[in-house]
């Protein structure tokens, strides 16, 4: 999983920066999924804006990690979009400051956004 094919067909290892970003994306994806589950278990009326942000972030981070692992030519652009989605999700989670799970999710989103911004700037 830490290797991919270059254009010439030879296997090249993912850079440590890419591995860190993939791990941050997958951590954020998992955290968003857990947070959505927690919201549903608690019942009540979860804010739709927050739930949409969690869903968008969960899907975007998973797709971003997948694209980096397969060395998609669109990975840098996906990382830039992923950073924006993660920032929006972190802000949405911060709207519920008394919820520990939301605060943990916001932190995971911030970490992911930071690594994705770095990867988008690296141009892969």
Automatic annotation (TrEMBL):
Coiled coil: none
Domain of life per record: Bacteria
Entry-linked CDD domains: DUF326 (cd08026)
Protein name, entry field: Four-helix bundle copper-binding protein
Lineage of producing organism: Bacteria, Bacillati, Actinomycetota, Actinomycetes, Kitasatosporales
Organism: Streptomyces sp. 900105245
Pfam families, alphabetized: Csp (PF03860)
Record-linked InterPro entries: Csp_YhjQ, YHJQ-like
